[in-house]
Amino acid sequence: MAQFQASAPTYVLVVEDDPILMMSLVDFVEQAGCEPVEANSVREAIQILETRTDIRTVFTDLDMRGSTAGMQLALSIRDRWPPIELLMVSSQPWDASQIPSRGVVLGKPFDRRRIVAAIRAFAA
Amino acid sequence: MPPVTLPPVVSDPARLEALESYAILDTPAEPGYDDIVALACRLCAVPVALVSLVTGDRQWFKARAGFPACETDLNSSVCAYALEQPDELLIIPDLTADPRTSANPLVVGEPFIRFYAGAPLVTPEGQVLGSLCVIDHQPRPEGLTDTQADDLRALARQVMTQLELRRALLARDLTRAKERRAYLAREALRDTQAALTALGDDLDAVLRTIIDGAMRAVPAAEGGAVQLIDGDALEFRTVRGTLVPYQGLRIGMQGTLAGHCATTRMPQRMADAFTAPYVNRDLIAPLNLRSAVTVPLLRGDTLLGVLQLQSGKPEAFSAYDLELLRLFAGVTTSGLGEVTAHAGMRASDTFWRGLFHRLNEGFVVGEVVRDEAGRVTDWRYVEVNPAWGELLGVDPSTVVGRTIRAVFPGIEDEWVSEFAQVVETGHATTFTRQVGSLRRWYEGRAFKLDGERFAVIFLEITARIEADARRNALLSLVDRLRDLTTIPAMTQAASEIVGRTLGATRAGFGLIVGDVEFIDIELDWTAPGQGSVAGRHRYDDFGNIRAPLQRGEALVVNDVASDPRTRDDASTWQGFDIAAFVHMPVRERGRTVAVFIVHDVTSRVWTPDELAFLRNVADRVEVSVARVRAQELQTVLNAELAHRLKNTLAIVQSIAASTLRGVTEREPVEAFERRVLALSRAHDVLMQKSWSAARMRAVMESVLCMQTDMDRFALDGPDMDISPQAALSLSLLLHELATNALKYGALSADAGRVRIGWRTEGSQVPTLVLDWSEHGGPAVTPPSNRGGFGSKLIRMGLMGTRSATLDFDPVGLRAEFRAPLAEVQVLVH
């Protein structure tokens, strides 16, 4: 889907420990015209961010094993890599004051239109 | 069906009499009991709970949850078997397997009950009235958990407390009526005595005074007569009421009630003239004589006549009435004696002194003390009787000649001003008032004597006032606890009520740490001027006091300086302004987990009634805390369930999307995803009320805002609570309509709008009518085919009623849906 873009692809790091949900998240990233980079755990996501500099957006599930892992990842990304944009999905109500600045949280089940629009907005 | 053998205790007369004493059978439902069964259902996780009272021939339910009938015959009773074991729960894991219940109509037929657990309702006297039982439609081999069993017992105690309260109120009303009666009788007697002393030798005046007094003291009397012996007949000398026309009537001594009384010189109570042996039957009708009390009038050994009261109703008089009449006869005798002796003397000083001494009531003669301006500022004791000393706790011989302000320093001003008023105006007055420094309440009557003197006759009513205060406190505690939702708020409310009711200086609630090693006292209530003791304290720093609390008994100390358990540490206690205290344990699973504490700055004897009150408060707080914990747990479970449901729906979306990856057209996939989303939005709204109901408008808004801006919709109708099924149906229906409107209808144009209106129609079977009307969009043409899932869903209508009318008006689509209101709406209180 990204081939019609003239410039280099826009990479989105997708963090999700459930393989079935990962398929959907990847699908949304591709539909938004971006290139997904998959991480199956928070640790793997940090490793990727430490070794690559071309990630502009992180798309993470907040419901991962170790209940608060997703939110901790988001907070440490905002701390260590301030320019990276954050898109999050969650099945639980969230406290707006806890969300890192510029971060966007969307609920589950997925609203494809909003998710794709949010990825596009960050990639633009 | 084999014959049912009920335990013999069911028909035990003592048990049935105990049940009768609560006067509870066939009374309307009350929220106090309803709350308990609702809580029992929740705590034991069962659909049915009952407060069941077992009579000799039926079981009647004071409260019921999940059970249709308000009573059943004993054939269908399981609770009857609970009566056999007052000390333990009756648990039957599978009613079909127990010989006592396998043939029970409620087991073999509707509603097919399977599991039963009942906690006996035991009176303080040990009689079992019935049970608080929980019932399930599934067998439960594991029975109840220990916690559930504890909870059921605690709730059964609460049922008994409610019942006891009811019985106490009945008994109080009865006692009050009796006291009132006795008070009126005493007043009548006293007035009669007073009047007699003022009369000279006018025989008829004496008799009039006496019969008026007797008629006043015995309200059941319709007529009365003093009949004096004249030769061998009795003459109606003074008559009242229905006997007024018979002034001067003479009746024989033989075969009459009065004659029998005069002959035997014994008081007589005739219950019914139709069956009584000594009555002149010819007189029954004209005198309207059906029942009577008659007493002889004697002077020394000389018989003067009889005093008789009568009624046209049978059984009008009690033994008490006869007693009263004897008292009046005694007064009459002394009056007549003087009259017949032509003594012309007033009642002798000795007579009055004797009466004065024997009275159970306190009696005071006082004389007001005036200042230079002539205002009454105090009063002096002239005379008091022995009962006065007992009722005030002061030696009577020490007070005569002193003033009340000197005897009771700091006494309330009303004790002076009210009696001053009596002397100034001459009007008698009644009072109910406390002597604060004694903590005792009195009720009495003050009347003027002569000059500056007055007399007071009174009784102590402290026990009654305090019992009333405790009852009212428990009632207000129940109300407060029902409204409060957090545990600290509950313990604070209870502390304040306990402190005020017991007149203590401090009250609070503390959590026990370890095996009664430490206590963490939460914010406590204190009387004005007292400091808080909130914080952690170590029990061993305060004496050897842990043992009773470890056993689950109350720790009661009347005086820290003399109690062997605390006297060595008395100064520690006094440092906290504590001279007397109670720690009342709150138990959970056989352990003391918290205590109610009450302190007093002065030593005092904690009465059994006060301790019972505290026990009761502790029980109530325990039950309410259990209720709050159950609700908190439910909220957590609901949130967890919502979270899992949403995550699962996301997984369903993913599975569908990847399963349909080969489908080149993406539109059906997206339509599916959005339908799942619409369903989930309805769940979000339902979750706010724990899936029991949802607000109609909130359901509509949450599903419509997913599609486009809300300002393109106009919602017009009464908001209401709708059922979970209705919420899901409504959200899917609106989702399809809005999707179509966006694609082909009004919402596909910028200026297009949709109006959604709803109303109820019909009074017999109310119907909800929902209108969807589009306007401002492109011209409408009817669809050429029957359409897919979306169109089918729309034709199914609300709640699947298929009552859907579609009008493809070129101006804009109009659709009308109908469903029975009863299926849509739920009533939430």
Q: Care to describe what's here?
A:
With 124 residues, chain A is of the alpha/beta class. Chain A has one domain (2-123): Response regulator (Rossmann fold, 3-Layer(aba) Sandwich), CATH 3.40.50.2300. Chain A has helices spanning 19-31, 42-51, 69-80, 112-123, and strands spanning 11-15, 35-39, 55-61, 85-90, 104-107. Chain A is globular, with a radius of gyration of 13 Å. By secondary structure, chain B is α+β, with helices and mostly antiparallel strands. Chain B folds into five domains: 8-169, Beta-Lactamase; 201-343, 2-Layer Sandwich (Beta-Lactamase), CATH 3.30.450; 358-429 and 446-459, no CATH class; 483-630, GAF domain (Beta-Lactamase), CATH 3.30.450; 665-824, 2-Layer Sandwich (Heat Shock Protein 90), CATH 3.30.565.10. Chain B contains 23 helices and 31 strands. Chain B is elongated and about 130 Å long. The relative contact order of chain B is 0.04. Classes of the chains: A alpha/beta (124), B alpha+beta (829).
Question: What are the defining features of this structure?
Answer:
heterodimer, A: 124 residues, alpha/beta, Rossmann fold, five-stranded parallel β-sheet, 5 strands, 22% strand, globular, B: 829 residues, alpha+beta, Beta-Lactamase, seven-stranded antiparallel β-sheet, six-stranded antiparallel β-sheet, 23 helices, 31 strands
Summarize the structure.
Chain A: It comes from Methylorubrum thiocyanatum. The complex is a heterodimer of chains A (124) and B (829). By secondary structure, chain A is α/β, with parallel strands linked by helices.
- In CATH, the topology of chain A is named Rossmann fold
Q: Order of helices and strands of chain A, N to C?
A: EHEHEHEEH
Extract low-pLDDT stretches of chain A. none
Strands of chain A, total number: 5
- Looking at CATH, the homologous superfamily of the largest domain in chain B is GAF domain
What would you call the shape of chain A? Answer: globular
What's the helix count of chain A? 4
The termini of chain B sit apart by 44 Å
Q: Largest sheet of chain A, described in full?
A: 5 strands, parallel
- Could you report the average pLDDT of chain A, rounded to the nearest whole number? 89
Multimeric state: heterodimer
> Mind telling me the CATH class of the largest domain in chain B?
Alpha Beta
What do we call the CATH topology of the largest domain in chain B?
A: Beta-Lactamase
**Sheet of most strands of chain B:** 7 strands, antiparallel
